[in-house]
Amino acid sequence: MLFYAEMASGKGYFTIADVLDSLNRKLIRRHPHVFGEEASRAAGNHAEVDAEAAVDSSAAVLRNWDQIKAAERKSAGEEARHSRLDGVLRGMPALAESAKLGAKARKSGFDWKNWRELWPKLAEEMGELEVEALSDDPARKPAVEAELGDLLFTVVNLGRHLDVDAEVALHGCNQRFRRRFREMELASSRPLEELSPEELESLWQQAKRKLASESPATA
Q1: What is the structure's pLDDT at 54?
Q2: Mean pLDDT of successive 10-residue segments in the chain (219 residues)?
Q3: For residue 180, what are the domain limits?
Q4: Is residue 219 part of a domain?
């Protein structure tokens, strides 16, 4: 930030002092429950908020925050957002977008209370996917895709409740699969495609045990 500010300063755009002043004003503007409504207005807040209610209510803090940000966008001439979720970029990787959407919805109280509540939802989504997959009707492919998407969305939000990043978790799984599959190839005296399902499963379990004994944390 210092480097960019110095470049901008050299061209006469702004200085690091301007950046810090802007950040300070934004913090004061968006936290009337901390700095007071008068200070918030002096820092540029044009939204009508209830600072007193926010002192003891996290929901009121978030409500004020959204109202103040909406007023900022309006003041800047930006198009008004129709949904709280409009702030989640559509170009994000799908796993990250799912977690962000769930986190945003949580601010409105629309969320599971804890990770245990997601178990029944997982079973529900798996059941719905199974119904569509069993149809064997090519015309039902969009429905199968939709149900699989619902299942993945639920799994991603399970990770969010467990404080686990789904992208990181899946990357780790991919790496484990690579190592185990390579171990299967090394352990087999014949090409894998010549083996029976039972032989392949035996090699898979053997690979898991070997890698776990060598490096439990990454097996």
Answers
A1: 66
A2: 92 94 90 86 82 70 76 72 81 94 90 95 97 91 96 97 96 96 97 97 96 83
A3: 168-214
A4: no
* Alpha carbon distance 83, 68 (integer Å): 15
Expressed in angstroms, the distance from the first to the final Cα of the chain is: 40
What count of other Cβ atoms lies within 10 Å of the Cβ of residue 52?
12
Contact 151, 125 (CB under 8 A): yes
Domain final position from 80, 106, 137: 80
- Please state, in angstroms and rounded to a whole number, the distance separating the CA atoms of residues 106 and 23: 26
Rounded-to-integer distance, Cα 116 and Cα 113, Å: 8
Residues 75, 133, single domain; the answer is no
Distance CA 201, CA 62 (A): 51
**Shared domain check, 46 and 62:** yes
pLDDT of residue 178: 97
Long-range contacts of 179-182 (CB under 8 A, 24+ apart): 179/207, 179/211, 179/218, 179/219, 180/204, 180/207, 180/208, 180/211, 180/219, 181/207
Q: Among 41, 20, 18, which Cα is nearest to 31's? A: 41
